[in-house]
Structure formats: C-alpha cells, structure tokens
Specification:
globular; 5 helices; (diamondback moth) hypothetical protein; about 110 residues
C-alpha cells in the first residue's frame, strides 16, 4: 500500500510541478483540497515545513512527501485514509485527458467530413 501511496503522491506532485504549482502556496492548496489540512495550525505547520525545504520558491518531491507523511501522522490519519484522500487526483487527471482526447477526435472527424 505504501508504494501505491508513494506512486500517487509522486504523480500528483509531477502534475503540479508541470503546472508550475510546486510552490509552497500551490502545494498547500493541493493539501487543503485533499482535506489533509484540517486546521489553521496544521496549515501553518505544513507551510513551515514546505518553506524550510524550498529552493528559490520551489519545493522538491522528497520534501513534499515528508510533509504529506508528517501531516498525516499529526492528524492521526492512516496510510489507507491518505491513499483514499489523494487517489482521486490521478483519476480526475486521467478523466480530463480522456475527455480532451475524445473532443480532439471528434474535431478531427468533423474536419475530415468537411
């Protein structure tokens, strides 16, 4: 299960990085959207941890993984719960890509008919 969680967190981070959101604030927003930061104190602590490891405003994958782990431990959330919380990120990404591919295919077919 830990390798699955690691893979999902890595994939989510890489997507955020590609979008230029591997910043302290970008990653905090992601953590909040996944309900991993339940209180203002948890958010402030995560901000401190992310800021401590940021280089030129960017957070690296290993630092992000550590923050997710510490956040889960502090909020007493188990690995399975964290997995459930973050799993939908990959699924929504796949759904977006599939939807975009279908739209592109429809446009290409339409152009071909004309």
């Amino acid at each position: 299960m830990e390798s699955t969680l690691n893979s999902i967190i890595t994939a989510a981070f890489e997507k955020l990085k590609a979008e230029g959101k591997n910043t302290v604030e970008g990653l905090l927003q992601w953590l909040k959207s996944k309900k991993l930061l339940a209180t203002e104190a948890a958010e402030n602590h995560a901000r401190e941890l992310l800021s401590a490891g940021a280089t030129e405003g960017k957070v690296q994958l290993d630092q992000f993984k550590q923050v997710v782990q510490k956040t889960a431990e502090e909020s007493k959330v188990g690995a399975e719960q964290v997995l459930d919380m973050v799993r939908d990120h990959g699924n929504s990404f796949v759904g977006t890509v599939a939807g975009s591919a279908k739209k592109l295919g429809n446009l290409l077919l339409k152009d071909k008919k004309e």
